[in-house]
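Hi Q.,

Before the meeting this afternoon, I wanted you to have the magnesium ion prediction in hand. No need to reply - just skim if you have a minute. The sequence and ligand are here:
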Amino acid sequence: MEQIIYSIQHVTKEFPGVKVLSDVSIDVRKGEILAVVGENGADKSTLMNILSGGYAPTSGKIIYEGQELTSLTPQHAQKLGIAMIHQELSLSNALSVAENIFEGRLPKNRLGFVDKAELMQRSKLLLQEVGLPNLDPRTLVRDINVSQQQMVEIAKALSLEAKFLILDEPTSSLTVNEAEYLHQIMRTLKEKGITMLYISHKLDETMAISDRIVVLRDGQLITTMETAATQIDDMVSSMVGREYSAGYTRAQYKQDYSTAKPILEVKNLNVGKKVKNISFTLYEGELLGITGLVGAGRSEALQAIFGADKRQSGDIYIEGQLCQIHHPSDAIAHGLALVPEGRKLQSLFLRFSVKENITIVSMRQVLSRLKLINRKKEYTLADTYSQRLRVKTPTLDQKIVNLSGGNQQKAVIARWLANHPKILFLDEPTQGIDIGAKNEIYEIIDEMLHNGASVIMVSSEMQENISLCDRILVMYDGEIAGELYHKDATEQNIVTLMAGQKLDLSAHTST
Ligand SMILES: Nc1ncnc2c1ncn2[C@@H]1O[C@H](COP(=O)(O)OP(=O)(O)OP(=O)(O)O)[C@@H](O)[C@H]1O
Ligand SMILES: [Mg+2]
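Predicted structure with the ligand bound:
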């Protein structure tokens, strides 16, 4: 018989007006990696928060190492060796990496002052362990990128020397290689006997790393499966509760560029050391992908064109006209929209309602003749888009901070679609989005293109690039290393260019 480390018995959770978990029972075996999967809003994070002392269950029991835990707090959980890496990064931007890792537990010397040498040394070791040997622990968190921040969160969890580790979507902002590195760390921890709960929307990862999988849907436990005896398709069907066909393809891809109308032209764009003199054209109704390794300068390019970041040089032409875009408001006035990556950092108004978060850039559409907000129009606009994206929320007046991570992301996308942009920039649009909702987002993008909008998408997901884009620019070290039309966009070709190698497309005929 396996030893049970954490037993969840008939757990139910209600928030004011919302029933979340209902009667969930799971026995977590000591030393296993148990994956928890389910659609956005299936209540995965809520359950994890209960296990780590963030929320109290409304009813039911949680029994850890044979002891029932009542009124568990995060501090108490930490003492018991339970650590959680949250879905939303929770580091303090103004503090250094080292101070974040040892937050509340800074090593002190005999006089009670922070022992800086000790802090540096221990931080360096932990950073090495998570694959960041060259990161100076004194760097401020605000100066490192999202994937580095994710790794610092992991270093922080390791510093706690937990016996029971909960990882809530740790890889959503990591590249394939970084995720693989994290999995190696997890395997090492497993060898040390540490039990892990692992949440991810990347189902192939889940299959690769877990021993067992539990599926949640609408707050209920649907099934528990041994990973070795499970097919991805079975897992997906129990997640979505209906037949699901994988692999999105658009009805049509742009092939004839001879009559294509340039909508956006970027000439000689330079952004710091990140983007080096790139020029490209986006055509009307086209979905142009920009890919490359993280750090290749993709997001920086988008941000700079949008006026959110400073560029050293670069002219932007929209429909043949040179435009002065130095601030996002200039970009918006020219019909541009940007859905940025890393939703919490950049784009949500956490204290505002779902409705306000959706309508905030489309205020002009909902003003009355007297320039007052027409509440009914505002509601209708928010309602239309939240339904199209199936944002799961009890009401539109719910504060957005209370939505699940994936549903927050959908609300940000809804915000920009509601503004009917002529040119839409999407930066990692499906990060943290479940497999069913991804297809819904793809369909909406497809429809926008069909209606004449043009889209630039930055995505690290290979399949997303291949199945959606008309054309892909591959960046390497700040430059455009190559261009692939849909018909040539194979994984092999993309990876070759991403690694900075030359590609010979002798069979290539498009111009
Ligand atoms: N503090 C809260 N107040 C009200 N409702 C809440 C609160 N926290 C969570 N919820 C609700 O609980 C539901 C489940 O959210 P949860 O974050 O657990 O989902 P999830 O499975 O982690 O989804 P995702 O994959 O998008 O992260 C959501 O519908 C959310 O609106
Ligand atoms: Mg979640």
